[in-house]
Amino acid sequence: MSVPAGQAQADGGLRATARIRAEADARGTSRLPVLDGEGPLAVRRIRSAGREARVALVGAMSAPLGGDRLTVSAEAGPGARLDVTSTAATIALPGQSKRPAHYDVRLSVEEGAELRWLPEQLISANGSELRVTTRAELASGARLLLREEQVLGRAGEEPGGLTSRLTVRCEGRVLLDQELACGPGAPGGWDGPAALAGHRAIGQLVVVRPDLAHAPVQPQMLGELAALTPLAGPGLLVTAVASDALRLRRVLDEAVRRVVP
To answer: Which residues form a coiled coil (predicted)?
Structure first.
């Protein structure tokens, strides 16, 4: 028997889904025919100064906890522009269930559309176990700006277990498919000199634009803590580490200023 959305599962944990879809009208203004959230995944429309549709994810309750299964789906229809942010950091916490929590993000950017996915940080608290999966599917001429920020542990505590996989496909071809595992249970060396080297904040910035297929960027360091890498297609990746969330955001904001027109 299926579990009603937004309700607890019999063996502990919660299932909840948020759905967002933007569509462009005849004047090119993006509307939100679908804006729906449940349980801890509340969604709110934000005032826009232009023709884009803007949405904020609002944490309505503590989540994800052990055993939770949360899903966010955001779609930008043909020619639409959708900006998604969040009002606060997401904190993965231990729960009554010993099973890991799952947080799935599914992004779809249709022909000629643009999606800016810029949520606040994900914090992996001590004792938690979270598996994050982010999948972005882009059509021809689509544009994407995606930022991920992960903080290992709150101030003064050891991190929880965190596994994160990010996949970006454009016109059916893979631009990026990578996985990161940190904290208890992760393969040895994740915190060593060849990996995080003691840093506790990790960030990524993915940019997909049609012009990057014909004029790819050159690989380069962006200061001491960030690197820019061209992708095999119309995109680029910025990867950064820092000692804390504030410093990480500064590094990624500077990267945005450099690579986003």
So the answer is: none
Altogether, the residues listed in the chain come to a count of 261
Sheet holding 161-170, edge to edge: 30-36, 15-24, 69-76, 101-109, 129-138, 161-170, 173-182
Alpha-carbon 33 to chain mean position: 22
Between 112 and 216, whose confidence is greater? 112
Q: Is 151 helix (H, G, I), strand (E, B) or coil?
A: strand
pTM over 0.90: yes
Q: Per-residue confidence at 4, pLDDT binned at 50, 70, 90?
A: very low
Burial category of 56 from C-beta neighbours within 10 Å (exposed 0-12, middle 13-18, buried 19 and up): middle
CA atoms of 111 and 142, how far apart (whole Å): 5
- Torsion angle in degrees (nearest 10) through CA of 70, 88, 36, 28: -120
Instruction: List 37's β-bridge partners, or say none.
Output: none
Strands (E) located in the chain: 15-24, 30-36, 41-46, 53-59, 69-76, 81-86, 90-92, 101-109, 114-118, 122-124, 129-138, 143-152, 161-170, 173-182, 201-208, 220-221, 226-230, 235-242
Amino acid, single-letter form, for residue 209: R
Q: How far apart (Å, rounded) are the C-alpha atoms in residues 151 and 134?
A: 17
CA distance 132 to 123: 12
